[in-house]
Design brief:
The protein is of the alpha/beta class. The protein has one domain: CBS-domain, CATH 3.10.580.10. About 40% of the residues lie in helices and about 25% in strands.
Length: about 140
């Protein structure tokens, strides 16, 4: 189930925060994605790649950056893909592939419960392959 592999209660950021502060928050938490909150609801998802693509020289240590760079909500993707915490990992992987995204937002009852990333799915794949490999070794 998605619930077993997602990051629960993901770090979020408000829509009107500067991308400078978003970069700092990502670096502090060692993450590459932030759900963007506007008026209490998830309004988008901003990734490190979104910020780099829009502003390749963005420097969170530059005190003048806030004057130049837009708010995080302006560069966030609003094309979101949601899954349920009770969905299977297979269904989540198919949804991620079909949406051509690197992260799925996880909802349970309409609220943001977690985030499932491509890295999380790679962890599941590694577990499966390791189990399969160990089974194969012991059968030969």
């Amino acid at each position: 189930m998605v619930r077993d592999h997602m990051t629960p209660n993901p770090v979020t950021i408000e829509y009107n925060v500067s991308i400078q502060d978003a970069l700092k928050l990502m670096r502090q938490n060692e993450i590459r994605r932030l759900p963007v909150i506007e008026n209490g609801d998830v309004a988008g998802l901003v990734t490190m790649e979104d910020i780099r693509a829009a502003y390749p020289k963005a420097n969170p240590e530059d005190p003048d950056a806030a004057l130049v760079y837009p708010m995080v909500g302006e560069v966030a993707s609003r094309n979101l893909t949601w899954v349920s915490a009770n969905d299977s990992i297979l269904d989540a992987a198919v949804a991620m592939k079909n949406a051509k995204t690197s992260a799925l937002l996880v909802s349970d009852g309409g609220n943001l419960e977690g985030i499932l990333t491509d890295t999380d799915l790679l962890g599941v794949l590694i577990q499966l392959l390791r189990t399969q490999f160990e089974t194969w070794i012991f059968q030969t």
